[in-house]
Amino acid sequence: MVTAVVIPIICLYFYWITRKEMKLNDSKWLASADVQNEAILTGEIKSITQEKQRFYYHRYIFIQELKLQSETKLISAKKIIPIQNNTEIDNFSIGEVIRVYGSWEGNHFHFNEYEKVKNKR
User: Fold this and answer.
1) In angstroms, what CA-CA distances link 29 with 25, 53, 81?
2) pLDDT tens, residue by residue, 2-18
3) How many structural domains is the chain composed of?
């Protein structure tokens, strides 16, 4: 008799916790693309690395890592995009000069906005 009451309560409790955790991770997944525009970098793209990573169960993010040669040094810049049905991936080419807007997180520069700069040749 006790198990007929306790087992459904335990199942509902774990269902409630799982739903709460999924909502939290969905909001973190969508917020992964939000970057504060605190700094600006300009440089020539030396290399491009692109990869798809699992964020949480069925949620994925697309990471584009660019090595930018600025006037003084080589900088690693990352763009993180949550993959949805209508996601468009930006295409970068080696040798392009771009200006990126974002913020520093550790040794990497995270950005979500950029513009192509015309070469001064």
Assistant:
1) 6, 12, 9
2) 788 899 999 999 999 99
3) 1
Q: What is the DSSP string of 33-54?
A: T-----EEEEEEEEEEEEEEEE
The CA-based angle 100-83-29, given to 5 degrees, is 85
- Contact residues for 50 (Cβ-Cβ < 8 A; gap 6+): 62, 63, 64, 65, 89
pTM: 0.83
Q: Is residue 103 part of a domain?
A: yes
Answer whether residue 12 is part of any domain. Answer: no
H-helix segments, the chain: 2-31
Q: Give the CATH number of the domain where residue 108 resides.
A: 2.40.50
